[in-house]
From TrEMBL:
InterPro entries from the UniProt entry: MOCOS_middle
SUPFAM superfamilies the record matches: MOSC N-terminal domain-like (SSF141673)
Domain (Molybdenum cofactor sulfurase middle) ranges: 1-116
Any Pfam family hit: MOSC_N
Protein name: MOSC domain-containing protein
Length: 129
C-alpha cells in the first residue's frame, strides 16, 4: 500500500510550489496544478532550468485568478477574465496546445525579472492539451 506523505501543486510551471493538506482532482489532475506558465512571445514555455529565478516567485491561486509575488516583494494580480479570449498556440516539451495570454501590464512586469520579453499564459477554462 502506498502512503502519501506530502502534496504540492505548482500553479505556475517552474515557480515555487504550494504545500497542501488536501486537493481536488479531476480528469486533468490536481486543481490549479500547472494551469499557468511563462512563455516566450512565440508561445514556447520557459523553465527554471533556463531561468533559476523562477523558483523565487510565489504564486497564490485565487478562485478568480492568480496573485504573483516576485523575489523583490512586488506583486501582481491577474484574473481569469483579464486573459485574452482568443487561444494562442503554445508549446511545452514538444506538446502543442492553446492557451490564453495575460494582459500587457502583467507581461511587462514579469519581463522585467527575466531581462527579455515573456508572457504569462493560462490554459483556459477548457484544457486543449
Amino acid at each position: 500500500m502506498a502512503t502519501l506523505s506530502r502534496l504540492f501543486i505548482h500553479p505556475v510551471k517552474s515557480m515555487r510550489g504550494i504545500g497542501l493538506t488536501h486537493a481536488l482532482a479531476d480528469i486533468s489532475g490536481l486543481a490549479f496544478d500547472r494551469i499557468f506558465m511563462v512563455t516566450e512571445p512565440d508561445g514556447t514555455f520557459i523553465t527554471a532550468r533556463q531561468f533559476p529565478q523562477m523558483v523565487r516567485f510565489t504564486p497564490s491561486p485565487l478562485h478568480d485568478g492568480l496573485h504573483l509575488t516576485a523575489p523583490d516583494g512586488s506583486s501582481a494580480l491577474v484574473r481569469f477574465t483579464d486573459f485574452t479570449p482568443q487561444d494562442a498556440p503554445t508549446e511545452v516539451w514538444g506538446n502543442h496546445f492553446t492557451a490564453r495570454v495575460a494582459p500587457t501590464a502583467i507581461n511587462q512586469w514579469l519581463s522585467g525579472f527575466f531581462s527579455r520579453d515573456v508572457q504569462l499564459r493560462w490554459v483556459g477554462p477548457q484544457l486543449t492539451r
